[in-house]
Amino acid sequence: MTDRTDPETPLKPTQLEPTQADPPDLQEKTRSYGPRIPWGWLALIAAVLGSFALHQQYRTHRDMSVAQAQFSATRDALFKEQQRFQHILSTVHTVATHSAKRESFHNFVHPTFDLETLREKRGIYFRANRTKIPPIEDLTPLIQEMAIDALAPCLGIHPVPLPVILESGKIFTPEWDARAAADKQALPTLRVLLQEQDSRIKRDIPELREQISAQYLVVILDHWDKRNESGRPTTADVEIWDISRSQTLLSLRTKPAGKTVTVPVDVEKRFRRLGKQSWDATAYDCSIARQITDFAQSTVESPPTQANEREIP
């Protein structure tokens, strides 16, 4: 018989024996040393985390919907103020554009115009370089560049400078709408936007309602001659517009003169937010005011022909 323990002796197929499973007691001992996966606990934890994530997603969606509805409702409640604000800006642009594009200038005063009555009414004041009036209705850059000058005090009237109105009605500007469109995409930024909007409404809207109820508009367009070395405009076109009646009260091309003298002025509280604590009270601006006064008074005393037109020599 062949020795099966001899490694050099090959085994015959009849000598092969099938593999037998380990006894049950050995299998149990072997399994106790292997890792045990708590499938039940893992399933429970996954279910809890999934439920929490779904709940948070629902709360976020609900809070976003509530905040967006609150934002829209607040704006809808101020629809009249927004319309009036946009009407004022559109009127300023229309008057300024018409004056800037005018090729031949004819001085004009309405028969009912009375400078004294303007001192008792609310008004709006805008001043800019005539060559910078844009073809579109976005006057924001020019409004932001505008500085408080001495023309209104020299006339004895108190119109609100347009930058003050723009600041009070900031929530109605395209810049605010663009910011709102971006901030409404995330709940934290939307909440900040709502807080700022509510703060501005409480602080600015009462003043804005008074400002946009103005009855007249004063537009001054300065023109610089390249040959002029004084640094001051050579002419200034003046337009006084009746907002309620949509008609010109006075149209005058002035040729101002005078030197600039810086004078500190006690600026009204509502203007201080713009950081303008003083302006240049100038003989230049007062000369414009003087020409306006003289032209209006002389026309009333002795009405000219041809639709109240007069030329300044």
Give an account of the 3D structure.
The chain is an alpha+beta fold and 313 residues long. 48% of the residues lie in helices and 13% in strands. It has helices at 24-32, 39-77, 79-101, 115-118, 140-145, 151-155, 162-168, 174-183, 187-211, 283-301, 305-308, and strands at residues 107-109, 123-129, 160-161, 216-223, 235-242, 247-254, 263-264, 278-279, 309-310. A seven-stranded mixed beta sheet has the order 3-2-4-5-6-1-9, with helices on both faces. α2 (39-77) runs parallel beside α9 (187-211). The protein is elongated, with a radius of gyration of 40 Å. The chain starts with 23 loop residues before the first helix and ends with a strand. Mean pLDDT is 76; it is low at 263-267 and 300-313.
List keywords for this structure.
single chain; 313 residues; alpha+beta; seven-stranded mixed β-sheet; two-stranded antiparallel ribbon; 9 strands; 48% helix; disordered C terminus
What is this structure, in a nutshell?
With 313 residues, the protein is of the alpha+beta class.
